[in-house]
Hints:
This protein is about 35% helix and about 15% strand. By secondary structure, the protein is an alpha/beta fold. A hairpin with a 7-residue loop joins strand 7 (about 145-150) and strand 8 (about 155-160).
Amino acid sequence: MAKPLQLVRGLRGGLCIFIPALLGPEVSPEELSHFGQMAAAVRQTWLTNSTTFVVPEEGGEAPGLLEQLDGLQITRLTVKGSLPWRSLRALGLWRHIVSLLEEGGGSGKCNWVMKIPVWSYVNAPTLESRLACFNASDTYFLGVPTVAYSPGEEPFMFPNPWGGIIISRGLLEHVAAWTEYCMRYAETMDTQYGSDSFFDDYTFSMCMSDLGQVVASNYADIEGSFLLYDRPNHTVMKFKGHPDTLKQCLLVVGKLDTAGQVLHVHDRISWSKWHTSIPCIGESQMGKFSISDAYGNAKDYYEERIRLALYYCKAPEFVHLEKSLSAHLHGLDPRAGQGALATPVPSSARKQRFVEAAEMAWRIWGTSDTFFVSKQPLSELLDSQTFLLENDIDTDYAHLPVRTFLLFEALGRPEWVNACDWYMKADADSFLNVPLIEQRLRCFDPSDFWFLGVPQVAHSARGAMTRFASGGAGYIVSRALLPKLATWAPFCLLQLLQHAGGTGMEDVSLAGCIWKWGHIDVVSYVDYETEVITSEAALNRTRVTHAHLPNEKLEVPPCSMVVHSVRPEELENVAANIKRSWHERDPARKCIPDQHRLTQGAATLLSPELSHLDLEASKLGKTYHWAVYGEREFQVLLACSQQQAADNRTL
Length: 651
């Protein structure tokens, strides 16, 4: 069997992680096997190239320990003099770690050093992104603070052992000197430093506090970034209840007790990362909050320099945008705004496939009032239909709300604000049946405040809900609402930049903005089951994106107005299938609101699945029920159905 690597030189990394494997001869075979299984789970899931296991000094390890760690990077402790190792293992461990690095005379170089038990899961990529907010050359002692109480002494903050300890490069040199002193001092006194009854991390933290007046600082939202419990079953239960889309924001999860638990946590966090619009620094709502214990002892939630570092942990262009917006909006009133169908489609020249998607959308369903929004020209084909928005930021999907707010602010300009009756924001990966959409919009009065779409519900981490119009299905703003929204948009954008760095779900952000300033909710203008195809289930059921043989039966609704999401090469199939379905329909059938389904929808109350926070809110009278069609849109669509049924021009 190959010997595991003994790593003593050449250590490199932005974040170097050390896992204690300090199992001596006294451990049982069962304990050794259990540790080996957990180490194997780490290797299978979150292990990084700069993760190292720390084993006891030569001859001090449990028989078979090295075989359990076969293939993993290890470093062996060295013992100097007659120091009683077991009583001071935390200090000795840190002294050894630093000795491997330049700051302690070694050759390794790490910006950050983390000590974490094998029983915890580390979301290393997200953790490194968080640490990138801080300057590693400064002195940082980071962790998830917990409190120890001793009779006659002030409460003492030290890192939760399952959350790990993180030390910055700037503090490592001090750690080397302080741990050396504390170990020599402890040899001569029977104090906390020499007691086996004290936690390892507590011992290390006491040394840091006594010699350097350095206390562990919180560096992330304790509720949203960590799940740390002594009982593994409790940890797993809390992880299961944590919102799936926010699991990617968890930095450390522990204690875990089986390899299966580690694999489950890894799989769910990996799946969560598909949701790229989630802001993991949502706690950048950086008021000067404090935390307190049951005895009334309070401290700042974040040390001031950490609070500011997190707040400004944004790309430079968003920091600039926030500052310029803040200066421009200072003293203005968001409610002081101005009292055919234009379809802006946010586009991008960053990648050729984005341009090709816009070109295909233009060829298949675009009209003379379809405009592709970009900061720069897209292609010769699209030149005449490109809305060059000079202050647009061609960014990633996570920052799409920034583009949306900038777009609607621009649509408030004189040349746009009264140019059309309706403004529909659409995506290039959608198919729009523009004639049918225009026909349906004739049911509504554009001089009233209308926000139309396919309503959905978003849950926040703290239980609140936002009813929003699905961005993929497109949403529509009336001529009367547009100037109001154009005025509100920069204020909402500034708030988004300040609270979440500009990240989030763009459709949720826009709906929240319209509700906050106008108390205008999204309403449905289509029948979700028969007039739009926007879910994976509907795409699979209708097979609208597939090519069909001439005699093959179609399951595509003939009155389909929107299909999402569609690859560029599928758009022609979608258009052909809807056109064929339209021609093969019953000639007496028109694409008008169905009176029976309208009545049924108006009488149907929808209620989303409630979390425990929602249930608490419901006890206070806050309910989350709504009809498929509210009274206002129900009456409008019912009257329109009767009118269009008698109109020979209706499609």
